[in-house]
Amino acid sequence: MIEFHGTCPVCGSAEGFESQDAWFRDHLFCRGCGSIPRERIFTWALETFRPEWRQMQIHECAPSERAVSRRLAKECKGYIGSQYFSDVPRGEMRDGFRSEDLEALTFSDQSLHLHLHLDVMEHVNRPDRAIREMCRTLRPGGLAIFTSPVYHDLAENDRRAIYFEDGVEHLAPPEYHGNPIDTEGGALVTFRFGRNFSTLIRMWEPNFAVTHLIPDDPSIGAVGGFRDVFVLRRIG
């Protein structure tokens, strides 16, 4: 077992972090809440850049039944969680979640303070549209804070799959990650983002200022691969 001492940004526990596996990304758990590194990095970024988030209008895309999403929903009165339900009209509700497509949101212009999501962008079909939609629906000064794996050995984004109206075209062997509303099928990876991702975000949406951080801090359990977190601020 590998251990690190520190305090969890998600639950505040000072019991530290432990892993039975060298792949810390999915196995370095907080002893208090069971959070994994990307959840702690995300929460650290949220508390650092928007410590007043509890008083804001927040949209979290694809929340899972874990400590981070539970805390957001519990502590923020303006919290809205959404899932991509293919069979529910956009903007309507199912099981407490709003049906939304990150590439075509139903939120009004400049109606939100924060867009939040963990490891969602690598599954969308058109990340350029998702970026523009987040900017459109944020108030001036609003933030989009999200994690997504970045492959720093890739100079450019690597497209893995394309969704069409009549199906999916695979450009590489299919890769699936966990999906909170489809535990059997999972979520298909459409992109492996490369070093140019931040540059592309600015090209897609000039009204976003982009901060790309890679925290390396054992005291918050930010250890291991794929520690990238993005903070996008709407300028105008």
From TrEMBL:
It comes from the Bacteria. Transmembrane segments: none annotated. GO terms for biological process: methylation. The keyword Transport does not apply. InterPro entries: Methyltransf_11, SAM-dependent_MTases_sf. Signal peptide: none annotated. Gene3D superfamilies: Vaccinia Virus protein VP39. One of its GO terms (molecular function) is S-adenosylmethionine-dependent methyltransferase activity. This is Methyltransferase domain-containing protein.
